[in-house]
Amino acid sequence: MTAAAPPVITSHNPADPSDVLLQIPAPGAFETVETVERARAAQPGWLLGGAAARSAALGAVADGIDAARTELAALAVREVGKPLTEARAEVARTAAIWRYYAQAPYEPVGAVHETAAGPGLLLSRRRPHGVAGLITPWNFPFAIPSWKAAPALAAGNTVVLKPAPEATACARRLAEIVQQALPAGVFTVLPGGATEGNALVSAADVVSFTGSTTVGQAVARAATARGVPVQAEMGGLNAAIVLADADIEQAAAHIAASISGYAGQKCTATSRVIAVGAALEPLREALAEALRAVPVGDPTDAATVCGPLINEQARDQVGDAGHGLCVLAGGTVPDRPGWYAAPTLVEKVPAGHRLLREEVFGPIAALLPADDLAHAVRITNFVPYGLVTSVHTADLNTALSGFDRLDTGMIRVNAPSTGVDFHLPFGGAKASSHGPREQGRAALEFYTSSRTYTLSPAGAT
Prior knowledge:
Blueprint: E1 8-13, E2 16-25, H1 29-48, H2 51-67, H3 69-80, H4 84-101, E3 110-113, E4 121-128, E5 131-136, H5 143-154, E6 158-163, H6 168-181, E7 187-189, H7 194-203, E8 206-210, H8 213-226, E9 230-233, E10 238-242, H9 248-260, E11 270-276, H10 280-292, H11 312-322, E12 326-329, E13 344-347, E14 364-370, H12 373-381, E15 385-386, E16 388-392, H13 396-403, E17 410-413, E18 429-430, E19 433-434, H14 440-446, E20 448-455
Helix pairs in contact: 1-7, 2-4, 2-6, 3-4, 3-6, 4-5, 9-10
């Protein structure tokens, strides 16, 4: 009896689906566990090499990414359909992330405390967990793996990265750059799908996940059952609140960019636009006009803002979500090869509609009226998610009065909902996030555990 062939990972160009970047066999569960064991064997040497070695290695990764920035941006355009300007920005941010965490090995890892009575010392110290298992999405193929891996490595862990199949080529190229600077076994990319992801969660010492809510919740349950630390960044159904005193043209420009940038394929994209009071009429016109003006097309063109969606199913979901609604802009599929959808704004969305309860992950948003700020806050909170909310107003006192009532992990004032400051904590509330925050110093804490030492002199009583 012939053994079944292993599943094949295939990566297509979303702008030209006939362009296949790679086809490779998935490694399977046993190879995944063996990869984790090799990383575990390499971890003590990586830690004991010292802060200077880890800092120099992470700095060398940043230099390598800088040197390959043109190639990496082109690869992100080709494999995941990221518009060229955004791809270039992501590569630059990726290098900055590695450079930022290159200083982390020199940071204090503990503190000395006085004893309650008598001689001795009390010490608290943070130590790495061991092997960090990272599961990442396709939409930021360099930045998200980096903002997980760099702090994990800086703290002395080794890393096994399981990228989304759609971003396999990007992950493998990133690994080549990272592995040139690190000892063998310290950083490994393991391509694959659910089988490999499940095996990684079952074997790693600490788990970080970014992706869909359904999978993220399963990852969190599995890791928690094993008693290992886990963080999961999942969906968003983000709102933009526009007050009547806002600069409507500026707000419309920011919101249009948050709806349509990278075809809305960001967990921080805006999918609900809440117009407060008299803001509704001018915002309706300005936002519809701004969306109609968004350049849609070839992601290799630096002028393109809204490129293709990642696959045919994702493209079709945008059309299905807007079907039968009052369309103010978009609602069409460009007549060209590739998986495109025009940036879309709809209104008069009935309660319970999927746009008001599910993340579509495409360039579509609903315009919703609110009587006042308190009403807008209630609308914002009336979803399972709470990642980011943007608030547009000329009066910060008014905005501040509503901030504390938002069930949202991040709030951006007079700015798009999209955008990440990698040196600050990143994460949401409710079904958007599980576990500790990512990025900044919060990441260094997540990838380490605290230990308390009591040192008493010999012979002390």
